[in-house]
Write a structure and sequence with these properties.
The structure holds two protein chains of two kinds.
Chain A lengths: L8 H7 L8 H10 L6 H16 L10 H12 L2 H34 L1 H14 L8 H8 L3 H25 L3 H9 L4 H39 L4 H10 L3 H29 L9
Helix pairs in contact in A: 4-12, 5-6, 5-8, 5-10, 5-11, 7-8, 8-10, 9-10, 10-11, 10-12, 11-12
Chain B lengths: L6 E12 L2 E13 L4 E5 L6 H8 L7 E6 L9 E4 L11 H11 L6 H13 L15 H13 L5 E5 L7 H18 L2 E5 L3 H7 L2 E5 L6 E6 L8 H5 L2 H30 L12
Parallel strand pairs in B: 3-7, 3-8, 5-6, 6-7
Antiparallel strand pairs in B: 1-2, 1-4, 8-9
Classes of the chains: A mainly alpha, B alpha/beta.
The structure holds adenosine-5'-diphosphate and magnesium ion (MG).
């Protein structure tokens, strides 16, 4: 955008980088389709796999052809059990995410904004964060039993640390001058929170959310392997124990699709809700 | 009406801890800013101008000394500052940025305030960019937006830190006029930092010259010209040129001293006087 655009209205209209509202419809389509490009390389892989399986180059007992898996997927779509598994896993994942992300967000913001809280919590978080959360799964199962709560909790714990650290980093990366602007104008603590700290930390928060869905899925599947009698993770484990690999691959595919769908949704929401994030001024 | 100054600065000192050592940025600064005065401050870079202004804007505290600012009307915010660096919020549109000051200072009065914000946006040439985000604007436009954000609040004390340094000549001239008009209309007190001596004499009732670091007020010069002033005709007057030349001499001494100090610091115990505005 040229400085000259300002005093010459006719030029301004032509040259103007589009205001968010006007270009939305066109941009929305591109935003919708853009992420689908990532499908290209998996599709190529599947084609090679299919060919190799049909040619008998790979052991189909372990690596059934994608078409076989797809057929299995299709029949499973019409079973009640599949939807129960999917529904349960989704519910566990979403509740766990919520239970972990909200407190993590609040603590991260507080750590970024208030020195005493930072000093109190930073060492603790730093010490606990690298601990692989799967390692405490037995403890969680012991405390919360085999019911739903243990699944929520293991997902929530993993998500909590990630969210705390990413939000904290997000707040710390805000240029101090933005706080100066608010302070000079006499903004209250809450005003500063909502007009500077929260929006300024959004890039960090969204990064956190993206990683969190991945980690949440991982922890959930692990928990369902050992401590559940339903759910996608349980189904994968069960397929192994009865040595019937097709449903196992269906389970893996569902997990992959879930991971992809979450990443896609977050990306899409981000572009729609926070258009400035894609092009932050430095 | 009292004749008490709007701002009283007495013997103010400000030291920073730079790598565990006390670095004195300001020393014995004494200065009055009269009510409704337009005061310009010039000084070599790194002499503490921004630090002094930040103190007036409640962003920095003096290490010692007295600093008093009178807040007269609850209807108007005490101060609004325009920063040297880029300071508009990337997460707000032009319109939101422009209204931010008025909303946050609690002086928002509905449509009346909106009209004022719109009017200022128009004057700053930003009307048709209302729905844009800052990353879609040029540097000059962003700076103009931060002017609008501060001006819209009609503060009692308007603090400007080299606000026009990044603007082209035409925009600068337009906004200088606009600033003077606002100042006359709203009866604000203005403290204006600039490195342009012509600008200081064009705009100011008085011009304060600061010494090189640690900064003090070296002298304060009154500007005798009637308003409205126009740069073109001022430039033709001998008195104007004399004034600018006098300031220039005064400042040159300080710049040379600052350079000598930098050289000495470089040669001797390394970075004690790490001046140059590194923040
Ligand atoms: N927060 C700070 N911490 C350490 N040093 C600072 C800080 N703020 C300013 N200084 C130092 O104080 C001196 C004056 O800075 P500043 O007020 O920005 O000067 P000016 O605006 O006149 O160029 C500089 O040497 C700068 O490095
Ligand atoms: Mg400065």
């Amino acid at each position: 955008m040229k400085e000259t655009a300002v005093r010459n209205p006719s030029v301004a209209v032509d040259l103007a980088a589009r205001p968010a509202s006007e270009a939305r419809s066109k941009a929305t389509l591109r935003q919708l389709l853009g992420p689908l490009q990532v499908l290209i390389s998996p599709l190529v892989l599947l084609l090679v796999w299919e060919g190799a399986a049909r040619a008998g180059w790979i052991e189909t007992k372990f690596f059934p052809a994608p078409s076989t898996i797809l057929a299995q997927f299709w029949t499973m779509l019409f079973t009640h059990g599949f939807w129960v598994d999917l529904g349960l896993s989704l519910q566990r994942l979403l509740i766990g995410l919520l239970m972990g992300a909200v407190p993590g967000l609040l603590l991260g913001l507080a750590m970024g904004l208030f020195r005493p809280i930072r000093i109190a919590f930073q060492p603790l978080i730093a010490a606990l964060y690298p601990l692989p959360k799967i390692a405490i799964l037995p403890l969680i199962l012991l405390i919360f039993g085999l019911g739903e709560m243990s699944k929520y909790v293991i997902v929530a714990i993993g998500v909590f640390f990630l969210m705390t650290l990413n939000t904290f980093a997000g707040v710390m990366s805000i240029r101090p001058i933005y706080f100066d602007v608010a302070k000079n104008l006499g903004a209250s603590r809450w005003q500063t929170y909502f007009t500077v700290a929260l929006p300024g930390a959004l890039p960090g928060i969204l990064t956190g959310l993206r990683i969190c869905t991945g980690l949440g899925l991982l922890l959930l599947v692990a928990a369902e392997f050992v401590g559940a009698d339903a759910g996608i993770g349980y189904r994968i484990w069960w397929s192994w124990s009865v040595f019937w690999v097709e449903p196992m691959y269906v389970g893996l595919a569902v997990i992959a699709i879930l991971g992809f769908a979450f990443a896609y949704l977050i990306d899409f929401a981000e572009r729609l809700l926070f258009p400035w994030l894609r092009n932050p001024s430095r | 009406m009292t004749t008490e100054p709007k701002v009283i600065v007495r013997d103010v000192e400000r030291t920073f801890d730079v790598r565990r050592r006390a670095f004195r940025a300001l020393e014995g600064v004494t200065l009055d800013v009269q009510r409704n005065e337009f005061l310009c401050i010039v000084g070599p870079s790194g002499c503490g101008k921004s630090t002094l202004l930040r103190m007036l804007g409640n962003l920095e505290k003096p290490s010692s000394g007295l600093l008093q600012i009178h807040h007269e009307s609850a209807q108007r915010p005490l101060s609004a500052m325009i920063f040297q660096e880029e300071s508009v919020f990337p997460w707000m549109t032009v319109a939101q940025n422009a209204a931010y000051g008025v909303k946050i200072t609690g002086t928002w009065r509905g449509p009346e305030s909106q009209r004022r914000v719109d009017e200022l946006l128009e004057k700053a040439g930003l009307s048709r960019f209302r729905d844009f985000y800052p990353h879609q604007l040029s540097g000059g436009m962003k700076q103009r937006l931060s002017l609008v954000r501060a001006w819209a609040t009609s503060p009692e004390l308007l603090l400007l830190d080299e606000p026009f340094a990044a603007l082209d000549e035409q925009n600068k001239a337009l906004l200088q006029q606009e600033l003077v008009k606002l100042w006359e209309e709203y009866r604000s007190t203005v403290v204006f930092i600039t490195h342009s001596l012509e600008e200081a004499v064009l705009l100011g009732d008085r011009v304060a010259v600061m010494t090189s670091a640690p900064g003090r007020i070296k002298e304060v010069v009154s500007v005798p010209f009637e308003r409205p002033r126009a740069l073109a005709s001022l430039r033709r007057s001998g008195e104007f040129n004399q004034l600018v030349t006098g300031l220039w001499e005064s400042l040159r001494e300080e710049v040379e001293r600052a350079r000598a100090a930098e050289l000495r610091a470089l040669a001797g115990r390394v970075p004690e006087t790490a001046s140059g505005g590194a923040r």
